[in-house]
## 1
Amino acid sequence: MTTVLILFAHGARDPAWRAPVDALARRLRASLPQVEVVPAFLESMPPTLDDAVATAVGAGATRIAVAPVFWAQGGHLKRDVPALLARVCAVHPGLRIDLWPVLGERDAVLDAIAADYRGLWTAGR
């Protein structure tokens, strides 16, 4: 393994909260079989971003993409995530880590949600 995609979400105390993140990881694994896709969480759930990166590096990862599974950029993505990534990079020098944009900044995501809501509206829900 040389490439890992980390789906980085907030986390919650309710274990059921992670179900959509795990479902997204399964879908991505099916469509990107050459990429290891793993979830990681900011708080309340394992693994942490630090742990997910350490596991990936231990398995031979040389490139990691971090996909924030957040709706918009708030304090966590503006302050906490850059600090987390700086710490991870200091522990693993030479590792390439790319931080992707949040979901609400992606036109394709907004288009897909709008299409789904439009379908719900026209179906009379």
## 2
Amino acid sequence: MSEKHEEWLKQADYDMGTADAMFTSGRYLYAVFMCHLSIEKSLKGLFSKELVEVPPKTHNLIYLLKKIGKKPHKDMLKFITKLNTASVATRYPDDLSKIQAAYTKEITKEMIEKSKDVLKWVNEQF
């Protein structure tokens, strides 16, 4: 694995740690945001390895998966789609109190756990 791949994965792990820290501090919106960022970076590392190209400047996880040509199992893909949708809402919330109500402690905890499963799956693709 080249240094570029390692750097993407190192940052993905760091961002997942940040998601945990945001969860612990009660900043659930940002925990979800960091989950998305972590998965995005891990997929960009896989993109770089598989296609031997600089990954595109996109936040779209589904687009990255399609370009890479990898398909996780059905439930994981469903979660990635959900996380992909959460990206815009957590990045640019129209109504802070509404988005905070949507990402409760329980929902955010589950999203972190599932994000860690995705991160593990991506790492297994290397």
## 3
Amino acid sequence: MSSANDTCYWHQIETPIGAVLLAGDGERLVRIHFQSGPRPLRPPAHWVAAAHPFAAAAAQLAAYFAGQRRGFDLPLAPAGTEFQLRVWHALCAVPYGETINYGELARRVGNPRAARAVGLANGANPLPIVVPCHRVIGANGALTGFGGGLPIKRALLALESRQSFALD
């Protein structure tokens, strides 16, 4: 995280899929973490708890979960390699309510033989939901790995397909 003051702020919000931790530099969202997933994040002691830097993100996420928002308009600052950034950018072009497979995502980033590398970049996405890595599925249509766990991935896809959703 690099900003003028290098301070990292965090705030936890409650959502229909459980607690979600937001982290950022005071101006840009840097990380979204599923606290009810398999690996909750304990904010480091030097991070500053503050709700105000996340008012827009919290409001947009609430609208998303209410079915009133299909995309996000937030300042983002994900940290990653050039390849990861290309993959994350391509993820943002996957329409709400639709899915693609890893091979197709690899083609979209100009490297059709890199499905596994795309999968690794997808798994390293620091901004799930906003950068919709949950919309990527296996070539056979199966739900595959997701940092927040498959129940959360299933719930997000159900929400976007206008099905009732709940965590398993």
## 4
Amino acid sequence: MTEYLIPARRAEAEFTEKRSTFIGHVFPVETEDEARACIDEMRRKYHDARHNCWCYIIKDGPVRYSDDGEPQGTAGQPMLGVFQKSGVVNVCCVVTRYFGGILLGAGGLVRAYTQGARDALDAAGISVVRRWVAMEVPCTYGQFEEVRREVFHFGGAVENVDYGADVLLSVLIPEERAALFSAHLLDASAGTIETMEAGEVFRAVPRQEA
């Protein structure tokens, strides 16, 4: 089953290291032109900065990076590594540096640009793109937390919770795990929780954790 990870949203993160200010931005993009447009946007916004280092990864497409004047291998490539290790694609990242007058050295630059990319990705969050089965799961208030944990255990996401006389969760479960999820809930609840399928969708869903 095709599944890939993308940034959930645009995001920004900033920190200071030895008086240099680093501002990281992450953008979800689908084409190289979109990535280039994001880079140009940051260059215009931070035109007075010493460096605007960048990288992008397009799914089934180009992978590019730039140190933008920093010593070779100290900025763009470490930033790129953050997304490659996370498995995130269709992403563009720009880390801007306002120089504070203190040299960081090659190791310090690698750590700073890595942190800039990682902090921005953490702020953006990650979405999973795949085919999902939408389900309605009715349960009692006493069963609610356990059902919620099982949704996350099966790699799913809770989209909505309707609190009435009982609880009704609207959830998305990975297509290949949907039948097992339903059978597991039915067994674990001694037959009191029966899921109802509400169709299939292929889209990005923010990754959730219990």
